[in-house]
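RING-type E3 ubiquitin transferase, pasting as requested.
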Amino acid sequence: MDRNKKYKTLKVASPAEILRAHQRDDGMVKYLREKVINVLQLLEKQRGLLPLIHSDIPFKLIYFLFTSGMGNQTLGEEYTGIVQANLDALKVPSLFARVLAVVLECFGEIALLRLLKRLELLVNHPNSNLTPTATILLNSFISKMCTMIPIIILFHKGLFYMFGQYYSLGKRIAGVDYAKVFGHRPTDTISWGLRLLGIATLTQCVLRIWQSRNSENFSERYLTVDEKHTPMCQLCLEKVPTTTTPCGHLFCWFCLTDWLNTKPQCPLCREHVIPSRIVHVMNL
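Structure tokens follow.
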């Protein structure tokens, strides 16, 4: 029988089955990591590979290379009787989709946050031609995105608990879901326990957003009411400035010294500033 035709009769895997499969796969990844560490200890090669063995990501990639990457079920999928499937197209996911899902799960969030940090460095670089207003707006946008990305991923996890489709955001982007192929199937496809967990997760996301917006509003009110006495550093937008340039602009000590070590100019008016002429203001 053609595997693609078989998917027309398959049922969507329940969230509980998907969770059990991933828990079993995570256990296998940790077991693989422990065995590799034991071998490296015997060979006395552990020290040079510390950055790798302290993370599960390399072992996840190896594990999924020999399972999903080769078109096989993972041990967790075999245990629960589910398979990866493109349920919208009613066909087996392509190799590209399976690999993309794994790569996004392992590196998606990390890559986005590192990209934002790199962008932040470019925005605040002394050689940047951006105006002070543009620098402030971009720094604010980058800060909000760094806060929102983990919340978006957590929000998607809450949707999975509630509705049971797409275990991760990476799998949703790649179009990889799960279908039930054999074994006992729960009578309730989405248990009330998981629904409750989904509600709690979505509530947590709302509270995080509310907390972040409250902190932003507090900062705005703080600057509006007491701006002349306690302005914020115009480079990091986080710390109260304690250092002034000869031209009278205020920054925090670490931001200003880092800037002047790269380029001896005031970050705002571009006036030439010698690092030895900056003054630490103690009464701010």
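Note for the archive: The two ends are 77 Å apart (CA to CA).
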